[in-house]
Amino acid sequence: MERFENLLEEKLVPNRVLRKGEVVRGRIVKIDDRTAYIDVGYKVEAIMPREELPPQAKEGDEVKGILVKFSGGVPVLSFQRYLKERLYGFLKSAQEKGKFVEGRVEEILDDAYVVNISGLKAILPKSEARQGLRKNSRVVAKIKELSDTKEGLKIVLTEKDFIELIKKRKKERILKQLKVGDVIEGRVIKIDPEKGITLLIKNVLRAFLPKEELSWGRDKNPYNYTEVGERLKVKVKRIPKDGEFIFVSLRELKP
To answer: Which residues contact 129 (CB under 8 A, 6 or more apart)?
Structure first.
């Protein structure tokens, strides 16, 4: 009987002590329009603002948060503070070492994307992003700016290095498959009447068409053969080892 009374007393008077700043774990028992109520084994349920909840969190899920304050004796938790303290070191290291981080597009604004990185929100300006990103698109980026503000972590991303990496790999694949004598098509991006025509092959590989390779005849004026923006078929003449430019011929396609 005495043992039963002791157990009952433990149930009725929880002896857990919570301290500001500690990580608290609990189970979500209710979510209303503004607040999540979390059973943390304390004498009252802890609360967390709904906008602080992890993505897709629902009643019954386990959640962690930093105890930021007591409001009328009720513990108030912050998931974003927990994430910030857990991930700040990782993000700082990634920024200093120039490493890529991954996330998903969560929201599309007029001039930027909101990217979710393990629950933290980051900003990817559209000027720093690939074209065609949509909601839930995978983002691979470097951290351009990381600062700790009163509102939380400010994270600004850039995909420019990733874009260059994609181009480099695509260019390497093209060069690996390309052979002297192949006929390829490119977009004219520059015309120099003294030297020749520069083309862009599949948006990554530059090809140079010397004016001597325009025709077997006397007309060597590049402007008489094409204009900037047009597409032109040419034959591969030479592929230098550095792969920066390949050299092509137009006249070798003509009888």
So the answer is: 113, 139, 159
